[in-house]
Write a structure and sequence with these properties.
Chains: A alpha+beta (450), B alpha+beta (283), C alpha/beta (454)
Distance between the termini of chain C: 104 Å
Strand content of chain A: 15-25%
CATH class of the largest domain in chain A: Alpha Beta
Protein name (chain C): FdrA family protein
GO cellular component, one term (chain C): cytosol
CATH architecture of the largest domain in chain A: Alpha-Beta Complex
Number of strands of chain A: 18
Organism (chain C): Nonomuraea cavernae
CATH superfamily of the largest domain in chain A: Enterococcus faecalis V583 domain
Structural class of chain A: alpha+beta
Number of helices of chain C: 16
Number of domains of chain C: 3
Largest sheet of chain A: 5 strands, mixed
Distance between the termini of chain A: 33 Å
Domain CoA-binding (chain C): 195-277
Shape of chain A: globular
Helix content of chain A: 25-40%
Strand order of the largest sheet of chain A: 6-8-7-3-9
Domain ATP-citrate synthase/succinyl-CoA ligase C-terminal (chain C): 328-450
Oligomer: heterotrimer
Radius of gyration of chain A: 22 Å
Chain lengths: 450, 283, 454
């Protein structure tokens, strides 16, 4: 017998030797009671959520190509994409500005840093969120026309999604670094890495990322902060084709991919994006289809509310720092990589990745607790992404804003930490709490839509 | 010299849920009782009383809810065989424990009307497993006599079976208990008066001297079965046969009871089922 | 130890250890622990990758040759020895594997709890939040009792319509009493199993009927509460109809008693049609068309059982009765029944929402009724109910005895309960009688006694 509420009534049942499951009920997030009642009473909600989460979990992302952004994303008239909800230069944080400067220099829109700054300040480059263009980008997530993108296709529902190629760790554009070595690496990626991978995937044919992610979970990745197994698996698929496609460049390409445990992250993000996009635009659904940060705001999008963003201030991650860096050096939360959590991976799959649990502050049990807690705010268990340590239970997937409001439990997000000063690069990694108001605002909008 | 200062051990007041079969003995005036057996999930208490059931089982949630049991809302008291206690005036007192029922359940819930055709179709799905007395002559005699409604044969077989076999509940008693409960419930449900009549005679036979012929626990369970009272596992199989719930899972749960108890009860149920069908046929 | 900054106090330690591997996160934790030591300014403990070597070089550490398979340690501070000892301790700790069983996540919503095996949900959270939990139950295909009040009638209708689709019963909202196969939910009495099933739009009404049945030795199969508004025009008896059908299908139920205030005409028609179609006979106990005790007697006769003398302990207070009857009730239906029978006087239902806002129900908290007893005038008759059972005051006689003894008015008590109740009916009756009250197990009889006194 399930009891929720007065302890006295539960005790009376226990005195009758009735086995009870008490719910650890707590009042919903402040100010949400009315909106909750209206949204819960929406007759469309249950079926809409079932449909939306079924589309999310049935998506079958395949890596089908590596293509130039200018070919596939309409970035004419000097448009850059960026991570998170919309932001302008004025409100952009250090690493976001750094990445925008780097991309301006890379594209040759300006010849030096000052030129880039004044161009960006004057609005000479149009800024748009990646999410609006079937794209996701890690950290600053800046995409400019010349960059090469993973192209991922949902073999189930036919959608497409894109994500840039991962530059590696250290001083890189996505963390807002734009020094000469950063631009040199990007130019090499433009000249060598992109074309070679593109040719290689033309030879391998589509690579089943759903199967690859499922395997990586069983090999200790959670696919956000740990992509070591997934990168190895992808490399295994690609290596022969890379050699066939470009024998004289193969060694440097493979060495580059092999040297970066996070190389898979970007492909995995595109897989997450194509899956969550499949769940968009179901009227009445309270399913979260995007969580993303631009270094200033944390935003969510909800299936039943189209492309509207609901935001709150991005928090500073709590984690471990590289070298002598500390919390004072950290930028507020940034990047579209929360698409992994949105699609049931990353922080939601922490229990699969005991190797990185110390981010949570300690023990394997904390990671298991993190994953278990996420079942409280999600609509489903993933049919294919499973966690061996939980008896192959599917990962918690499909965040429901009503459940977030009811439990007060916010999504667990694993993340890298960018330096707050443009050009610094990565300073650490850890966990971050999304702002509750992003979810309560979405809930209020859902209530208005009933 | 010190005067003994043994602190009086405080009573622990515990509540629970009891089979309504034990209500008479629980509400009778207080009588002494003694621990017959103590296991991790149950304590059997024999009450010096003429009221049946004279043995009551104090159990935890993990144990089988025998028709003579009281389910405790807390842990079992630490007692050993031979410990003394009291039962009556609405209360069980054993060691430091003082127990009262806060809920009563019916160990013989009515089955309601049962369609004989449905029973006939369900009969092959009642698997008997490997009962302790497979191939025993007395069991065969019991089965044959029941189906023919031959009272003398039934009573002869029953005489031989009471107390037959090893353990706390000998196999012979379990077969008879399964049979009695089935004749009562399926007999009443299908309106087969001959089956109910047979149950009355069989009940009188097995309870007449059960207290001297078998273990006290088994004798009590025979008294319960004579009134149609059984554990939920047995009732669930009868409900399954009647089409009121899934049969196969119920049969599997029954077979998990005891060493051969589940199979022995199933054998008794099977004999009862055949008898009800045979006796209820076109006269 | 190598290098140095030239400072007398500050020192650098740089070590390269081979054959040790730890993942970067584990090592970042070690770095953090060392950096937090008071004698340490900077500590880097990391695998000697190009990135990490560069970081250390940027901090002006003097580094020996090392590769990515080596562990690099670079510590600066005025107490590097402590830091080194801490390093060894931390690395040793990393090597000893620790596995811990993670604690189970307790369910935070009914939806989550329903993933485990369950058969019924009991909701008693504050009214404005009850809808969410009840909806979870219905959507999980579980019957639910909503003890909470304050759920709007629109949501009640929505809940009950959904329940019809899912083929489950919604008991409530504002359902105080249910008994399912002997299990008492909310305010319910300890009842013996038996052939009578109840469908009740009134909790205390159901308690009166079932307690009297139990005193007559007749048990109950189930008491299915439906909530006080179920038979209103808006709700139209949705749960009543469902509950009646459920009891009709229950082999243990031989007779159904329907306890309610007179229903709205629309609901009465719907319920009437269903009652006519049932195989099981139905006795209606509709307030105003007779009292609950009469309905109980009718049920007993319908079962062919004899009607006993309802236990009563009438007393003579010796006090003159010159005033009026004051009903001081905790049960709404009992209060209404008594008011109808007495026909005059002042009746207050302290279980009404107006009195329970921000305090416990008067069946649990006697405070308001103690005040009312103290305020009664000499010459008045105080007519009150004392309801026993699960979740009620564990010893109401003890709570009221003193106030009754000191009350200048004559006190008549309707004691609703069974011999099996945790409070012990006979002990309660004796204590109340001792205090000077006349005690009746039938509320109707208590009311008539009070009426006849004035």
């Amino acid at each position: 017998m399930i009891t929720v509420g007065a302890g006295l009534l539960q005790e009376a049942l226990e005195a009758q030797a009735v086995a009870t499951t008490p719910v650890e009920w707590r009042p919903p997030l402040p100010g949400t009671a009315d909106a909750l009642a209206r949204v819960l009473a929406d007759p469309r909600r249950t079926a809409a959520n079932e449909r939306a989460v079924a589309r999310l979990t049935s998506a079958r992302p395949h890596l089908v190509g590596v293509r130039r952004a200018s070919e596939v994303l309409d970035l004419d008239g000097r448009t850059f994409l960026h991570a998170g909800p919309p932001v302008d230069w004025e409100r952009a944080s250090g690493p976001m500005r750094g990445a925008l400067i780097g991309a301006t220099l890379l594209e040759g829109y300006a010849h030096d840093e000052d030129g880039a700054r004044s161009l960006l300040e004057s609005g000479g480059v149009r800024l748009e969120p990646c999410h609006g263009r079937r794209t996701v980008g890690p950290m600053a997530g800046v995409v400019s026309p010349s960059m090469w993108m993973f192209e991922v296709r949902d073999a189930e529902h036919g959608g497409l999604a894109y994500c840039s190629l991962n530059e590696g760790l250290g001083k890189v554009l996505r963390y807002g670094a734009y020094g000469p070595e950063v631009l040199d690496r990007l130019r090499w990626m433009d000249r060598v890495l992109g074309p070679v991978l593109s040719a290689a995937i033309a030879l391998t044919g589509p690579i089943d990322l759903r199967a690859l992610i499922a395997q990586a979970l069983q090999m200790g990745d959670e696919l956000h902060n740990r992509n070591r197994a997934a990168t190895s698996l992808l490399l295994r698929e690609l290596a022969p084709a890379v050699v066939d496609a470009a024998p004289e460049r193969a060694a440097e390409v493979l060495r580059f991919v092999n040297g970066n445990d996070h190389f898979f992250l970007n492909a995995g993000m595109a897989a997450g994006k194509v899956s969550t996009d499949a769940a968009r635009d179901v009227p009445g659904s309270s399913l979260v289809v995007a969580m993303a940060r631009n270094g200033t705001d944390f935003g969510v999008q909800v299936s039943g509310l189209g492309d509207r963003w609901f935001t709150g201030p991005a928090g500073v991650p709590d984690g471990l720092y590289l070298g002598a860096y500390g919390p004072a050096d950290a930028n507020p939360d940034i990047g579209d990589s929360t698409i992994t959590e949105t699609s049931g991976l990353g922080g939601f799959a922490m229990a699969a990745a005991p190797a990185i649990v110390r981010f949570v502050g300690g023990e394997v049990s904390d990671a298991i607790a993190a994953t278990r807690s996420m079942y409280e705010i999600t609509l489903a268990e993933h049919p294919v992404y499973q966690i061996p340590g939980l008896g192959f239970r599917g990962t918690p997937v499909g965040i429901d804003v009503t459940l977030v409001a009811r439990t007060g439990l916010l999504p667990v997000v694993n993340t890298g930490i960018a330096g707050r000063v443009a050009g610094t690069g990565q300073v650490g990694a850890g966990l971050v709490n999304p702002p509750a108001e992003a979810f309560t605002r979405a809930l209020a909008a859902l209530a208005d839509s009933v | 010299m010190t005067v003994g200062t043994h602190a009086r051990r405080p009573r622990t007041h515990v509540t629970g849920a009891a089979s309504s079969a034990v209500r008479p003995v629980l509400e009778a005036p207080r009588s002494p009782a003694r621990v017959l057996a103590a296991f991790s999930t149950g304590v059997y208490l024999e009450v010096r009383s003429d009221v049946e059931p004279s043995v009551i089982a104090l159990i935890t949630g993990a144990a089988t809810r025998l028709p003579n049991s009281v389910l405790l809302a807390a842990g079992l008291p630490h007692v050993t065989v031979g410990d003394e206690g009291w039962v009556g005036d609405g209360c069980v007192q054993l060691g430091r424990l003082s127990l009262r029922a806060h809920r009563w359940w019916d160990p013989a819930p009515p089955l309601g009307p049962v369609d004989p055709l449905r029973l006939e179709q369900a009969a092959p799905r009642l698997t008997v497993g490997s009962p302790g007395l497979a191939g025993n002559d007395a069991v065969d005699l019991l089965a044959g006599s029941c189906a023919r409604g031959w009272l003398l044969g039934v009573m002869t077989a029953a005489e031989q079976l009471v107390g037959l076999g090893p353990g706390l509940t000998p196999s012979g008693d379990d077969v008879l208990a399964g049979l009695l409960v089935t004749l009562r419930h399926l007999g009443a449900g299908t309106g087969t008066e001959r089956a109910v009549w047979l149950a009355d005679w069989l009940a009188a036979t097995v309870t007449y001297d059960a207290r001297t012929r078998t273990t006290p626990i088994s004798a009590t369970l025979l008294h319960c079965a004579a009134r149609g009272e059984a554990s939920p596992e047995v009732i669930a199989v009868l409900r399954g046969l009647a089409g009121r719930q899934a049969l196969e899972p119920a049969v599997r749960r029954l077979h998990r009871l005891g060493h051969t108890s589940g199979s022995d009860l199933a054998q008794g149920i099977a004999i009862g089922l055949s008898s009800v069908l045979a006796l209820g046929g076109p006269a | 130890m190598s290098g140095g900054t030239g400072d007398v106090v500050m020192g650098d330690v740089v070590m390269v250890r081979t054959g040790i591997y730890h993942d970067s996160v584990a090592l970042m934790r070690v770095s953090k622990a060392l950096t937090e030591l008071p004698g340490t300014e900077v500590a880097i403990v990391a695998m000697a990758t190009e990135l990490n070597l560069a970081l250390a070089r940027d901090l002006r550490f003097d580094l020996p040759a090392a590769g990515p398979a080596d562990l690099l340690v670079a510590i600066r501070g005025h107490d590097v020895e402590t830091a080194t000892r801490e390093l060894d301790r931390q690395l040793a700790a990393l090597s000893s594997s620790r596995t811990q069983a993670a604690a189970e996540q307790p369910p935070l919503t009914t939806r989550s709890a329903a993933r485990r095996p369950a058969d019924v949900v009991l909701v008693s959270v504050p009214g404005e939040h009850a809808f969410a939990e009840a909806l979870d139950a219905v959507q999980s295909g579980l019957p639910v009792m909503v003890f909470s009040d304050g759920v709007s009638v629109e949501r009640e209708v929505l809940l009950k319509r959904l329940a019809d689709e899912r083929d489950v019963l919604v008991m409530g909202p504002d359902c105080g009493t249910a008994v399912i196969a002997g299990v008492g939910l909310g305010f319910a009495n300890v009842l013996r199993p038996g052939p009578v099933g109840l469908v009740a739009a009134s909790g205390t009404g159901a308690q009166q009927v079932t307690s009297l049945l139990d005193l007559a030795g007749t048990g109950v199969s189930h008491v299915l509460g439906v909530g006080g508004r179920d038979l209103s025009a808006e709700v139209g008896g949705l749960s009543t109809v469902r509950a009646l059908r459920m009891l009709d299908d229950d082999p243990a139920t031989e007779l159904i008693v329907l306890v309610s205030k007179p229903p709205a005409p629309e609901a009465a028609r719907a319920v009437g049609e269903v009652v006519a179609s049932l195989r099981t006979p139905v006795v209606s106990a509709l307030l105003g068309e007779g009292d609950l005790t009469e309905a109980t007697e009718q049920a007993l006769r319908a079962l062919g059982r004899s009607v006993p003398e309802w236990p009563a302990w009438p007393g003579w207070s010796g006090k003159a009765v010159t005033g009026t009857v004051r009903g001081v009730y905790s049960g709404g239906t009992l209060c209404a029944e008594a008011r109808l029978i007495v026909g005059r006087g002042e009746f207050v239902d302290y279980g009404d929402d107006a009195y329970t806002l921000g305090r416990a129900h008067p069946m649990i908290d006697p405070a308001l009724r103690l005040e009312a007893l103290a305020k009664a005038a000499p010459g008045d008759v105080v007519l009150m109910d004392v309801v026993l059972g699960h979740a009620a005051d564990p010893d109401p006689a003890a709570s009221f005895a003193h106030a009754i003894a000191r009350c200048p008015a004559t006190v008549v008590v309707a004691l609703v309960g069974t011999e099996g109740d945790p409070q012990d009916l006979h002990r309660q009756a004796a204590a109340l009688r001792e205090a000077g009250a006349s005690v009746f197990t039938s509320n109707a009889h208590a009311a008539r006694h009070a009426r006849d006194l004035t």
